[in-house]
């Protein structure tokens, strides 16, 4: 079982959450080039090691937050509210 640390509800089973993708800067679709927008949507990196991810607590407080997760071991560091 994997626990995720929701900043508002505390540690909960990962089945209560929805994965929100890597926490990367989203380009403005109104001003960015089609190539950069395509890269943002379809060509995200999949690094081995520590990465920052967005998660949504769908079965709890219904808020988004970011956690650092090691993609090889699933070790998780404390979560923080997403902006
Ligand atoms: Zn929560």
TrEMBL record:
GO MF assignments: sarcosine oxidase activity
Family matches, as InterPro entries: SoxD, SoxD_sf
Superkingdom of the source species: Bacteria
GO biological process, one term: tetrahydrofolate metabolic process
Protein known as: Sarcosine oxidase, delta subunit family
């Amino acid at each position: 079982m994997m626990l995720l640390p929701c900043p508002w509800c505390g540690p909960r089973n990962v089945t209560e959450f929805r994965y929100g993708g890597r926490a990367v800067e989203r380009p403005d679709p109104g001003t960015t080039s089609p190539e950069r927008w395509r890269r943002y949507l379809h060509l995200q990196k999949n690094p081995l090691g520590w990465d920052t991810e967005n998660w949504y607590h769908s079965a709890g407080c219904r808020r988004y937050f970011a956690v650092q997760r090691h993609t090889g071991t699933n070790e998780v560091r404390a979560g923080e509210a997403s902006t």
